[in-house]
Amino acid sequence: MLLKNTNIQEQLNKAKRQFSEEQLINEVYLLLKKSSEKEEKILKKISGTTNSSQNNFKFDLLETDRIFHIDQIKEICINYRLRFLDTKYFKGQIPDKTIDKIKLLEQKHNIEIEGFKIVAPSKLFKLADKDDPLLFAPIGNGYFYLIDKWGNDLHPLRRILVWPFKNIINLTLLVVLISYLTTLFIPNGLFSKSNSQMEFMIIFFFMFKSIAAVVIFYGFALGKNFNPAIWNSKYFNA
Q1: What is the distance between the alpha carbons of residues 129 and 173, in angstroms, rounded to a whole number?
Q2: Segments in the chain below pLDDT 70
Q3: Which of 7, 46, 151, 182 minimizes the number of CB atoms within 10 Å of its CB?
Q4: Are 174 and 164 contacting, i.e. CB atoms less than 8 angstroms apart?
């Protein structure tokens, strides 16, 4: 039986394919291991305490529409009754895609990002929910870089619904409006046979005192405060 001649080129191709497959498997394994370690490190920084107020981003690589000043963040938090706190207070879950964005950003800028902060409704700093958190990293000098946003958008009427909690004037105006509307629903002649302007004012004043008392009791009982006082407070009853 004659042996077939060895084709050196075919043998080289076989060796090349075998080497590439083994090398690919090893490289993928190392890459996944490195990625997993990197992810654990990021999660520890997010859930831990850090005093970092600046990250050395490469400015040319930043998206300018993602850069915000602390005053702009404060304004949004006050208008929509949100909080801007360190991520260690955040009780929700950080999505995998957000972790991937952090890793990509660190790789692109060749840094380890620290000082993470989140804008979210107060309840998200107590329990998991689905509303609209925004993850920031400090750039320095009062500026922050928006890394990612996840979850659902805020309700379109949220700004209107939280408007009374913006300050004492807004809340008083709301109480006055509710008192006036409630007074209008009182049947004529219920308390007196005469239907005078004075009677209307007395009933209105009574309604105002009653509703104001309920609002004050609710505020003190639940430890509520106005938006400017809580936007960056870590305390539940701030």
Answers
A1: 31
A2: 1-37, 49-51, 126-132, 153, 189-195, 220-223, 235-238
A3: 7
A4: yes
Distance CA 197, CA 211 (A): 21
Residue 134, phi then psi, degrees to nearest 5: -125, 130
Query: What pTM, to 2 d.p., does this model score?
Result: 0.68
Rounded to the nearest 10 degrees, the angle between the axes of helix 168-184 and helix 197-221 is: 130
**How far is residue 228 CA from its own chain's centroid?**
17
Phi, psi of 45 (to 5 degrees): -70, -35
User: Hey, is 115 helix, strand or coil?
Assistant: coil
Closest Cα partner for 98 from 43, 157, 30, 175?
43
- Model pLDDT for residues 116-149, shown as the tens digit of each residue: 898 888 777 754 444 568 888 899 888 888 898 8
